[in-house]
Amino acid sequence: MRLWQSLLLSLALATSASAQTPAPQAGLNEEAVSAVMQRAVDEVIRPGYRNAQQSAARLTTAMKDLCDDATQQKLDKAKSAFDDTIRYWSVIEIVQTGPVIQDNLFEHILFYPDRKGVGLKQVQALIAKADPKDATVDAIAGKSVALQGLTALEYVLYGTGSEDLTKQKNSFRCLYGAAVAGNIQREAGEVVAAWEKPDGVQGSWKHPGPQSEDFMDNKEAVTALLGILVHGAETVRDQRLEQFYKGKDSTPRPRMAIYWRSKNTWKSMTANLEGLRTLWQKAGMAELLPADKKPVADAIDASFKSLLETVPKLNPDIDVATSDAEKAKLEALLVSTRELITKISDDYGAAIGLSAGFSFSDGD
Fold it and tell me: Is the pLDDT assigned to residue 363 strictly greater than 60?
């Protein structure tokens, strides 16, 4: 009898203790949503697009200077301005929602991937035709998206025949490149203008609810913000890495890597990751977590830190980077990017109560 009495007493004490211990917190911290959305708009999205537009303006000037002078010094400055624009655009291109996806503005700035090389053939044909009528911003704006954006300009500056840029002033190739830069500047300006209107998408994102045209409530707003992170991380892995390297058992396709000609592949990927981390940290998305889920935020911070230390060290020559001697680094990168996606989508999403019923991979 004494043994049973002891067991019953232990059970009673355990039950009493559990009743007094608060249950773990779960779900979205609703009180933090408003501040997080405002910071996302004012400290990340709007400055990001402004930086991209301003960089494109500097690139346009550098291209015009090259056309007027056609010297190696001017070409070097144009290439430096191009690299600068790649970096600023890559930081903000992770936001693939809102005004930038209207009227194909995103594709006007960046047409990628060009899986069958159709866009490249269009650029080569336009340069070969060399019709002066095609070398204006307005003319370029009315053509195929493959002829308008950063990948087209990369071919102008780095592709076959680019040495001609220093042989003749105001050559068609250069004037076409300047028009492309001007078009990128104008398209980026349209996105900036849309976000700068206080009563437009800016206000709609900052104030979820009945008055918002985008989000019916806080949950929808946070879902969109989380969607940027998830889709952005997936883009890094699926379109920036797996586009040319799918694993050790597959054949690498280095010519499918974005910006391989200008050796900006890893610089662009680094900027993509910087953009994602900036959104995560500057918007304060960790504040949406319940108090007992801080380790989830710490794990995401650690993943960003590791990737941003690793990617810039990869060989900028994609032929070398995909060689047998370097494949182990790419294998590790495949694993690390998948882990980042999982931590954001599954761990963070579940912790704020948005995993069930939401498939970020499908855009729902």
Answer: no
pLDDT tens per residue, range 289-307: 999 999 999 999 999 999 9
pLDDT at 31: 95
Contacts of 350 (CB under 8 A, 6+ apart): 356
pLDDT in the model for residue 27: 85
Tokens found for residue 164: 């001609």
Distance CA 227, CA 221 (A): 10
Spell out a b/e string for 244-280, using b for 16 or more CB atoms within 10 Å of the CB, else e.
Answer: bbeeeeeebebebbbbbbbebbbbbbbbbbbbbbbbb
Mean pLDDT across the stretch 41-59?
A: 98
In angstroms, the CA 94 to CA 45 distance is 10
Rg (CA), the chain: 25
Closest CA to 158 of 183, 184, 187, 123: 123
Contact 54, 91 (CB under 8 A): no
How many other C-beta atoms lie within 10 A of the C-beta of residue 213? 9
User: What architecture is domain 34-197?
Assistant: Up-down Bundle (1.20)
**Tokens at 230, concatenated:** 């998830």
Instruction: Find tokens 């200008």 and name the residue.
Output: 262
For residue 150, what are the contacts with CB-CB under 8 A and spacing of at least 6?
Answer: 85, 86, 89, 109, 110, 184, 259
Is the pLDDT score of 161 beyond 80? yes
